[in-house]
Design a protein that fits this description.
mainly alpha, Hypothetical protein af1432, globular, binds nickel (II) ion
Length: 194
């Protein structure tokens, strides 16, 4: 694994996401990297460098952040750093297989895609998932109650859609914590059990 290239990718997204406050910034991408490497260590056959680069760059062309076409940010970074063309295509296809909006429920067909998708989903769960939900909701004019609704519509369903055994194990505590949060929220607000 080319650690120099990984470090450069970290620096690249640091600049790219400067000032972003809705929970999709640099911290998210670094946590996806950490989650993905943890999963990849347990899942045989994954190319760790592809996993690392796709993790770091997975939101570089996200439509919520930018209006680039055809993964232009990620592609330019990889080209400028002399990654071979076939590796670039592999990384971009992993990134595209992870995006929820581009795939609506389709399972990635490579182990690297499965790992990065799981890593991204894990970061939408647990304490971090709760924090990100309200940060994103606030920035997009969503009420607290609407954000609570998002747990039921999406976040509580994530656990059952995970691809790898390792991620399913990592998700257990995060899922339980979200349920506990919602139950406290309901009791403090006097809402019926949701
Ligand atoms: Ni993401």
């Amino acid at each position: 694994m080319n650690n120099d290239l990984i470090r450069k990718a970290e620096e690249y997204i640091q600049v790219l996401f400067e000032g972003n406050s809705d929970g999709h910034g640099i911290d998210h991408s670094l946590r996806v990297l950490t989650n993905a490497m943890e999963i990849a260590r347990e899942e045989p056959g994954a190319d760790l460098e592809l996993v690392a680069l796709a993790s770091l760059l997975h939101d570089a062309d996200d439509h919520k952040l930018t209006d680039t076409k055809d993964n232009a940010n990620a592609r330019d970074f990889l080209k400028e750093n002399n990654v071979e063309d076939d590796r670039i295509e592999l990384i971009l296809s992993i990134i595209n297989s992870v995006s929820f909006s581009k795939n609506r429920g389709k399972i990635p067909d490579t182990i690297e895609g499965k790992i990065v998708q799981d890593a991204d989903r894990l970061d939408a769960m647990g304490a971090v998932g709760i924090a990100r939900t309200f940060a994103y909701g606030g920035k997009n004019g969503r009420s607290v109650d609407d954000s609570i609704g998002h747990f039921h519509d999406k976040l509580l369903l994530l656990k059952d859609g995970l691809n790898t055994k390792t991620a399913r194990k990592m998700a257990e505590e995060r899922h339980e914590f979200m349920l506990e949060f919602l139950s406290h929220y309901d009791s403090e607000t006097g809402s019926p059990e949701s």
